[in-house]
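Worked example 3. Consider a protein that binds (2R)-2,3-dihydroxypropanoic acid.
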Amino acid sequence: MSKVLVTHQLPGERIHELPDHCEMNVWMGPGLMPSDALRDELAGCEGVLCLLTDRIDEALLEANPQLRFVSSMSVGVDHIDVTAATSRGIPVGNTPGVLVDTTADATFALLLAAARRLVEADRFVRGGHWRVENAWSPEFFTGNDVTGATLGIIGLGEVGQAVARRAAGFDMRVLGWNRSERTVPGVENTELDALLAESDFVSINVALGEETRNLIDERRLALMKRDAVLINTARGGIVDEEALAWALSHDRLAAAGLDVFAQEPVQEDHPLLSLPNVVTTPHIGSATLATREKMADIAAANVLAALRGEAMPSCANPEVYQR
Ligand code: DGY
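Given these inputs, the predicted complex is written out as structure tokens:
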């Protein structure tokens, strides 16, 4: 029987089908599987069902020539060397589609929270600073209007489009930029630099790859309006975090809402964490139980297909099946 490593206990139903088809070895924790445990446990496995926190690099693939497939419980596959997998004929499964609305909701939650300074205001109240002498004043905790503002969406994939649908409910003008031309109802296609210069809010919804790493760099941040708000629910590596921290602390940008960081978990002393105009969450864009169950079910379905010798229903490198 094929051996399959599952790097975390998973929710959902379909994971329970795996033991009928393979010898399933589940990492029981505590916590995430350390990289040396991943290396050790992968030995002899034909497949791995992993999370976005597991780095599947070329060295790991090289050390495991018996590996036939990788299935990740994530839509993003930047933690996997997909090029190296493809060159070895290894399909890489992912979980698109099911987390679109949940992630778009989280994007808007961050956008509203950053625009209206919700977290700062919450801290103010809980910290006992809301007193009679400062109970209310015309400029007390003023933020940015969302309704009627211009939203620039970087990446018009499924999540970007779902963000655009939500923006329509706020009567926003929506600008969009995508790496390849894509027409989306209600979205004006715009060059990236122009989008940054014209938008009151910018939402990053593009995948991380070599072309998008540091896409929002110092030069591009400087194009943004001084009172603009940047939201990132995609991947931290798309933004130059040092330049972002500088812009936010030098009145060059109003606020940021960040669910993702270049290095996760983010270090406690990261410069962005000390800024009051940053609202942050720990990569929870898709974190509802219903969505996580759907993601786990797709990841398990990808494993089951691979074990049967069939094409994975959701595959990030379908070209492996063309051979
Ligand atoms: C993914 O699946 O890539 C998301 O980042 C999870 O929230």
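Take a moment to read the result before moving on. The radius of gyration is 22 Å. The longest strand covers residues 150-154.
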